[in-house]
Amino acid sequence: MIFTSLLNNELRSRLIALRRDLHRHPELSLQENRTAQKLYDELQRLKPVEIRRVAGTGVVARIRGKDPGAPVVALRGDIDALPILEATGLEFTSKNPGVMHACGHDAHATWTVGAACLLAERPAAGDVLIILQPAEEIGKGARAILKTGVLDSVAAIFGAHVDSRYLVGEVVAQEGPLAASSDTFEIALLGQGAHGARPHESADPIVCAAGIISALQTIVARRLNPADAGVVTVGSIHGGSAPNIIPETVELKGTIRAVDTGTRRLLQEEVKRIVKHTASAHKVKAKVTIHSGTPPIVNPPQPVSWARDAVANMLGEEAIVPLGMLNMAGEDFACYLEKMPGCFLRIGVREPGGEVIPAHSPQFCVAEECIFVGAAVLAETARVASETLAKQNP
Ligand code: NI
């Protein structure tokens, strides 16, 4: 137990109990009612300047700083679970069958409350807003929180995600891309139905779909600079009802990922172009709809330097590790970074010698000490950021 010294005994036990309770009672996006109430009650004990429920199942608390006039910074933890049947065998395994904290948001919610406790004990220069955000998994929570206006006067925002690729005690705090944009597309193909034995009388949307799926693979292989990262994945295909009928319609759905806006635009344009021309070659009508999801996370330099200082203060310089491999998953924290500066961290959760179990898998679990690391690092990041901002804007 090397990270126990970051927090006192009482706070450690409280956070472990909170995390296990959240893990036992996971709730899906926008249904986090019990979770939000539990987190509200925990934060209420700290006698915050203000606490309220926002965006349905979100909670925002304002922890008092030394100077009420100093710039305000925010810490964000997401709180929702996933539709997965848990298979960890943990003693505090999910009591809600088919719903599981398989992305570690139970740890995120808990370490954010932990950071609030630490900031109540040793305040930052200015007030710190604690944001417990619903619905990250469906990419809607951050925008819903922003819409309430609670962050309008916030000078910087920080958050973190568990990551089993790194050992507990290791933290990634680096400049540049940390998560990808996540857009979805739908392709509706309208052909001409016919008997399966008379294909010449059809405009076959099944064969057209096959051509489109193959052609879409050439976007990343042949249109994108090999030095840039991008993903085009078709994840769903529906069409047809019988072996001997050529159907009228086929529907495809997929996802597009990129870590910069130029690539994001290129991939979207290429999907539309290839679908249009491939469908035309098959005499099939095509409609492409692209739903813009969350943008990429690209950490800006100054907030990163505050987070790195905080990690060094709490754990030593050696705790800061490189991201290593670009992460093509999405994270709706990116929506906050469109509006204000900030930094998103990745916090190691693997026990020494433990295997890497990917998030969103039924076996996913975190080394519990990551909660102490997350709480201490986020609280200290808020302090460093707040103090620097207060000096910059006296
Ligand atoms: Ni997550």
Topology, element by element:
Layout: H1 9-24, H2 33-44, E1 50-54, E2 58-63, E3 72-78, H3 105-121, E4 128-133, H4 141-148, E5 154-167, E6 171-172, E7 176-179, E8 181-190, E9 194-195, H5 205-223, E10 230-239, E11 245-246, E12 249-258, H6 261-281, E13 285-294, E14 297-299, H7 301-315, H8 334-337, E15 342-350, H9 370-392
Parallel strand pairs: 3-4, 3-5, 5-15
Antiparallel strand pairs: 1-2, 2-4, 6-15, 7-14, 8-12, 8-13, 9-11, 10-12
Report on the biggest sheet.
7 strands, mixed
What's the overall geometry? Answer: elongated
Structural class: alpha+beta
Low-confidence segments: none
CATH-defined superfamily of the largest domain: Zn peptidases
Strand order of the largest sheet: 1-2-4-3-5-15-6
CATH class of the largest domain: Alpha Beta
Distance N to C terminus: 41 Å
Just name the CATH architecture of the largest domain: 3-Layer(aba) Sandwich
Question: Which ligands accompany this protein?
Answer: nickel (II) ion
Number of helices: 9
Using DSSP, what is the number of strands? 15
Counting structural domains, the number is 2
Rg, Å, rounded: 24 Å
Strand content: 25-35%
Average pLDDT, all residues: 96
Helix content: 25-40%
Summarize the helix and strand pattern as letters.
HHEEEHEHEEEEEHEEEHEEHHEH
Summarize the structure in words.
Helix 3 links the parallel strand 3 (72-78) and strand 4. With 394 residues, this protein is of the alpha+beta class. It folds into two domains: 4-179 and 296-392, Zn peptidases (Aminopeptidase, 3-Layer(aba) Sandwich); 183-291, Alpha-Beta Plaits. It is built from nine helices and 15 strands. Nickel (II) ion binds at residues 103, 105, 136, 161.
